[in-house]
Amino acid sequence: MPTKKPLDGIRVLEMGQLIAGPFAGQILAYFGAEVVKIEPPVNGDPLRSWRLLDETGTSYWWSSIARNKKSVTLDLSGEAGQKIAHQLINQADVLVENFRPGKMEAWGLGPDEFKASNPKLIYTRVSGYGQSGPYAAKPGFASVCEGVAGMRYVNGFAGQAPVRANLSLGDTFAGLHAVIGVLMALLNRQNDDGRGQTVDVSIVESIFNMMEGVVSEYDGTGIVREPSGTTVTGIVPTNTYACADNKFIVIGGNGDSIFKRLMNAIGRPEMAEDTSLATNAGRVANETAIDEALNKWASSIDSIDALAILDDAAVPAGPINSVADVVADSHFRARNSFESIEVNGEQRIVPAVHPKLERTPGATQWPGPKLGEHTESVLKDWLGTDQE
Predict the structure, then answer these.
(1) Domain that holds residue 176
(2) 203: exposed, middle or buried (C-beta count within 10 Å: 0-12, 13-18, 19+)?
(3) Of the listed 45, 93, 171, 274, which one is catalytic?
(4) Rounded to two decimals, what is the model's pTM?
């Protein structure tokens, strides 16, 4: 018989749109939760029509981020839709919503409404700045929150405009934090008295949580970490180098023994044995000379040959892959990092959701649903409604 998934039997109601909340819902659904997504009756979640579209006018991304979810359409602007949403929330183990703070309360669906009627509910809120504080009411898009939280400040090159990754990292960071909060609350509910709780996730704090030691360093020294281009401040060598074939590779030679192997591999044994470069502090002081040596070597050799030499020397290194390179990469395929699903009569690949679990792995059961595809079946199953 098939192995049960970790979240089998957990009912999740996803209310919200675009990325942060739905990304959390994708992970929960992948690992077995029954995730019912509430969408407006006209057009549904805007992400259905974001970026590149297939022949039906649907986003390719939709197949992935809405996988394993059930779509129910409700008009939450009206009393009838709000009443049905209220009934559905009363049947849920977990609610994930990512509206601006106060919106759910305006609909009569705030967390206080369910403390008596559904005390086991884990009410998970994702917003730009959190449910309290002077910024709570501000609209919080990831692009802005990445700046507010300090991540944009450390990205890019000194003297130039800060840059962003060509991804909505703030949203996905928030989605991951929402999943962590849900899982901890579920565990607490199981181990304690069966009660749920509110999980308050903000995009700003999710990004801030990933900022490593910048606060501690500032507090201790008054030093503000500045942007450092393709390097990381205070760790040498770790950088990107252009090879003779105009392809870039990343070399992480910042361990003491790794640095010696690296310098020997590129034909610079005198640097390998230089006692002033034996520790990271010494290498930081001599970063320019080290990078000059590595740039000179990399530019004299094709990337495939450079990586082979570094692999033989057990030096961490790799190519700068495009998505085309990743899809073709034998390691990703050997690790089953892609899944094939049928969409509109054709096979498409979607990325698997990680991490891998040995006994209870997740899986993609179906692609993102059609708008309102499960309205009738979910209302019948969750609420016992009749046809009328």
Answers:
(1) 11-210+334-383
(2) buried
(3) 171
(4) 0.94
